[in-house]
Amino acid sequence: MTDSLHDLRRCTLAIDLGAARTRVYAKRAGLIVDEPSLVAVDIRNGRLVAVGGLAERMAGRTAEYVRVVRPFSGGTVVDVDMGILMLRQLLGDKARRAWLRQSKPRIAAAVPFGAGPQARRILSETLTDLGARQVELVHAPLAAAVGSSIPVGQPEGSMIVICGASETQVAVLSFGGIIAGEVLPVGGNAMDDAVLEHLRIHHDLILPHQGLLPLHQVLSEAVAEPQSNTEVHGKDVSSGLARSLNLETGGVRDAMRDPLSALVSGIGRVLRRCPPDLVVDIADRGIILTGGSAVLPGLDTMLGAATGMPVHITKDPALSTVLGLGMMIESAEATEPAAEEVAEIRPESAVRAASQELA
To answer: Which of 170, 195, 192, 196 is nearest to 263 (CA)?
Structure first.
C-alpha cells in the first residue's frame, strides 16, 4: 500500500479496475477513460476483436469462436493477458498525452479492502507490465470516501458501502483509517441474476440482461406498488420464440430478498466490530452508498428499511473511487510536507490531507 504523500504526488495516473467498468484519471487532465471492462477475442488465433463499449455490444451476439471476457473482478485481476490487452487499447493516445513525455508513468490504483498479498501483487505486476514505473495501491473504501466528499480525516465514524457489479465493500472509517470492513461476494450482478432466475423458474422466460433495465424500477417502493405489473420481453424456455409477459412486481421484489439479506448481514457484522461511539456516529450520519450498482432504483430505500439507518447515495456514485484517487494525487502536491517529514507519514495521512481540502 502507499507509504507517503510523496508517493501519491509523483503519480500521473489513477486507475479503478472494476468488474463492470474501467476508469482512468490523469493528473491535471481529469477522467480520460470510462469504458466497460470487456474484451472480445477470436479464440482461433488470439486476435483482438474489440474492447470496451464495442465488446459490450457484441456480448451474446457473436459467433462461437468470438469470446467476450471480463479481465477484472472487484478491483482484482483474473486474466492478466486480457487485462493488459484491454488497458493498452483503452489508454492509447489519451494516456500518452496525459503522461506528458514520461517514458513510464507512476500509477495509483484502487485495491479492494481485504485483498490478499497475491491479489495486490498481481495487480501491481499487471500495471507494471503495462508500462508503469511504480504502482501505489490505495484501499478502495478510502478513495471512494474522499471522492464522496466524506470528511474521513475527522475523528468521527462514517460507513461507506461500495456496491459494485461483482461484490460489495463495506467499511467504517474514522480519522483517515479503516476501523472495520468486509468484502461481500454479492453485488449488482447477483441482484440481476436473482431476478433472471425467478423469471426462468416461475415464468419459463429467459430475459436478456438488457431487458433488466425496466425491471430495475420494481426495486423502488416509490415507483412500484406491491401489486403493480410490468411488461417484459424475452425468449420462451420451451419454444425458443420471443414472448412478452405482464409481470407482477411483488414477486420480483421477493426474488431480491436473498442478495439483499446477504448485504444487510454483512453491514451488521461490520458494525458489531466497531466501538459504540462510532456506531452512534453512523446511526446519526447514515450509511453512504456508492459504486456503480448504487443507482439501482430503490436499493437505498430497501437498505434503509432493513438496517433502520438513513442511507444516502453520493453524487456520481459510479465515479467516487476514481475521482477520490484523482483528488488524492492532485491534492498531494499542494500539501506535500518537508522532505524530513515524509518518512513519518502513512497512507491515512494522504486521505486526511485530501479530505481536509473538501471541508
So the answer is: 170
The predicted-structure confidence for 94-151, as pLDDT tens digits, reads as follows: 666 655 455 678 899 999 988 889 999 999 999 998 888 899 999 999 999 999 999 8
Residue type, 340: E
From the list 57, 51, 60, 58, the residue with the least C-alpha distance to 22 is: 51
Backbone angles phi, psi at 104, to 5 degrees: -140, 120
- Which run of H or E residues covers position 232? strand 229-236
Distance separating alpha carbons of residues 237 and 204, to the nearest angstrom: 5
- Tens of pLDDT, residue by residue over 186-218, are 888 888 888 889 889 999 999 876 667 666 665
pLDDT, the chain, mean:
82
CA distance 85 to 81: 6
- The Cα-based distances of 137 to 8, 70, 128 in angstroms read 10, 21, 12
Could you tell me which of 323, 352, 353, 310 has the C-alpha nearest to residue 335?
353
The residues that bridge with 21 in the sheet, in sequence order, are 36
How many angstroms separate the CA atoms of 202 and 195, rounded? 11
Q: In what order do the strands lie in the sheet with 66-69?
A: 47-51, 39-42, 66-69
Measured CA to CA, the distance from residue 68 to residue 330 in angstroms comes to 35
Q: Look up residue 141 and give its amino acid.
A: P
Torsion of CA 5, 6, 12, 16, to 10 degrees: -30
Coil, strand or helix at 225: coil
- How many residues does the structure list for the chain? 359
Asked whether the beta carbons of 286 and 309 are under 8 A apart, the reply is: yes
CA gap 293, 336 in Å, rounded: 35
pTM of the model: 0.82
Contacts of 11 (CB under 8 A, 6+ apart): 27, 105, 106, 107, 108, 136, 329
The set of cell numbers assigned to 125 is 505486476
Q: What percentage of the chain reaches a pLDDT higher than 70?
A: 82
